[in-house]
Write a structure and sequence with these properties.
It is a single chain. The protein contains no helices and 10 strands. The relative contact order is 0.32.
Length: about 120
Amino acid sequence: QVQLVESGGGLVQAGGSLRLSCAASGRTFSRYGMGWLRQAPGKEREFVAVINWSGTRKYYADSVQGRFTISRENAKNTVYLQMNSLKFEDTAVYYCASEPTGRGTALSPAEYDYWGQGTQVTVSS
């Protein structure tokens, strides 16, 4: 089992930046792909970004392509989401989650197994 705890959310003006962190505990962390997903008020949970076990493969939702960067440091059991040029539409609760295949190809929330509690990101106009 992998336990995940997100941090780094907060209130930021449009055009600003935030870096989210997800600290993991578990002996098999490096075997998992890791994803970031988000849920805005009144909307379904949606995919944001995913990274494979080694950090060599990444996929992004079209809505964040070119603005967000996912990365990981396996030695620290941590995955990051660097968020630049934030927009009001990015406002959501952001979750990290583990992808059990390790391939870094999961584009649907249903493909993830372990989830963190989420961290709120609010972007003001």
